[in-house]
Amino acid sequence: MSDLHMLARLALLFACSGAATAASGAAGIPDPLAPPGQIAAPSAADGAAPLAAARLQATRVGPDDGFAVIDGTTVRRGERVGDAVVVRIEAASVTLRGDDNTERVLRFDAPGMSKRPAGRNGTQP
Q1: What are phi and psi of 109, to 5 degrees?
Q2: Alpha-carbon distance 5 to 12, whole Å?
Q3: Which helix or strand (DSSP H or E) is residue 74 part of?
Q4: CB 57 within 8 A of CB 71
Q5: What's the Rg (C-alpha) of the chain?
């Protein structure tokens, strides 16, 4: 087989593998390496997500009062998450208050994860 035929076959092989990769992405398979902001969140048309299903993914606490990422959506204090309002954002938890005035504290669900605030002099423990 000549070098030209070999190059043509390799080009065809690469083209087919690229099409297969694109097709698998279009099949609704989520990308596990996608940042939390790119994970599909429930739409408003689906109705409010139940408070019990909310999952804390990230927090940031700072002088601007910070934010949290819950179920792929970035929220600040006072904003709604499903049928609840964000009441407090801390380094390792977020407190939500439901419409029935019950409170629920969301924590990170990674086993063995310990998140502590910085020490008084700004150093990490």
Answers
A1: -95, 10
A2: 11
A3: strand 73-75
A4: yes
A5: 22
Query: Could you report the per-residue pLDDT of 68-105, keeping only the tens digit for each?
Result: 998 888 999 999 988 899 999 998 899 999 989 999 99
Tens digit of pLDDT for each residue in 2-39? Answer: 777 777 787 777 776 665 555 555 566 766 666 655 44
Helices of type H across the chain: 3-26
List the one residue out of 71, 40, 68, 38 whose CA is nearest residue 55.
71
86, two tokens: 């964000």
Q: What is the distance between the alpha carbons of residues 27 and 24, in angstroms, rounded to a whole number?
A: 5
Paired strand residues for 60 = 67
Q: Report how far residue 44's alpha carbon sits from residue 56's, in angstroms, rounded to the nearest whole number.
A: 19
| pTM of the shown model | 0.50
Question: If we measure between CA atoms, which residue out of 92, 93, 95 comes closest to residue 81?
Answer: 95
Q: How many CB atoms lie within 10 A of CB 83?
A: 15
SS3 content of the chain, % helix, strand, coil (to 5): 25, 25, 50
